[in-house]
Amino acid sequence: MAPSHVLRCCQRVLSWIPVFFIAMVVCWSYYAYVVELCIFTIPNVGEQIVYLIVFHLSFFMFVWSYWRTIFTKPVSPSKEFSLPKADKEQYEREERPEAQQEILKRVAKELPVYTRTGTGGIRYCDRCQVIKPDRCHHCSACDTNPWCRCVLCLPSRVNNCVGFSNYKFFILFLAYALLYCLFIASTVLQYFIKFWTLCRRKSSEHCPKNELPDTHAKFHVLFLFFVAAMFCISILSLFSYHLWLVGKNRSTIEAFRAPVFTNGPDKNGFSLGFKKNVTQVFGDQGRLWPLPFFTSLGDGYTFPARLVSADPERATVILETGANAR
């Protein structure tokens, strides 16, 4: 077995460790909230029922969206973006970059490709040996083909590339994770205060007799509040950033480096207005926005833009927003 293959297998195994860690934390939070808090700690039955219903709803939506984020495969470019056999052989024989670009330009004339490299050349992936569709980038971290608007590569969090096919699921995952943590932190707070007070005053002669029982449940409740608050703060910043990206219709790469068109870089080249930008990710059926069903508009490798000025050999193209474009 080649050393590179062994290393790749090790990386693949290690990439699952954060996912297993999150799964363990979520499973523990379920036990701590349902069993230790609701069953063993909360004395009021009505309060138990309300908390359990809302908790299980948020828990289910959180796990569902997280599952879809992890296991939704990235979209790969269609065969039309691959070089024909003759052009591919000629491209590989050529040693001059100028000659290679001429080959790429000839093939790209028939493709819906309007973004360019920083020097104005056709974007080509030597690893996958295809002409890159607009807004697409190869993910070297995952060593796969996460094409089609690879908005954010997060192998350390979800062990999958977040792109066109699962970006909506990722946004919902952040939203429901935030709601999940907020609900836990807000409902646990009063019992956290009571247990904290009990811990500080249990040796006092004036400790109230109606305090909660000093059992092992207090450790779960205390730790549950700290974990929920910590995750809430970290998720809030990431969720806010991605909401801003959705409103601007930018990927994380485009947020740092503006896409380059034939007439130059334009950071708002794919922005269609706030409402249309949101529908590009969540679709045009509002009732399906909160659910982790795929409703994003388009095919993943052609995207509507405000104005795309083609090169002199091609006509000026204006891509309007539509249900059949992304």
UniProtKB/TrEMBL annotation:
Transmembrane annotation, as ranges: 12-33, 48-67, 169-193, 219-241
Palmitoyltransferase DHHC domain location: 122-256
E.C. designation(s): 2.3.1.225
InterPro entries: Palmitoyltrfase_DHHC, PFA4/ZDH16/20/ERF2-like
Native organism: Scleropages formosus
Protein name: Palmitoyltransferase
PROSITE patterns with a match to the protein in the record: DHHC
GO molecular function, one term: protein-cysteine S-palmitoyltransferase activity
Protein's membrane topology: Multi-pass membrane protein
Protein family according to the UniProt entry: Belongs to the DHHC palmitoyltransferase family.
Catalytic activity: L-cysteinyl-[protein] + hexadecanoyl-CoA = S-hexadecanoyl-L-cysteinyl-[protein] + CoA
Keyword Transferase in annotation: yes
GO CC terms in record: membrane
Domain notes: The DHHC domain is required for palmitoyltransferase activity.
Keyword field: Acyltransferase, Membrane, Transferase, Transmembrane, Transmembrane helix
Compartments, as annotated in UniProt: Membrane
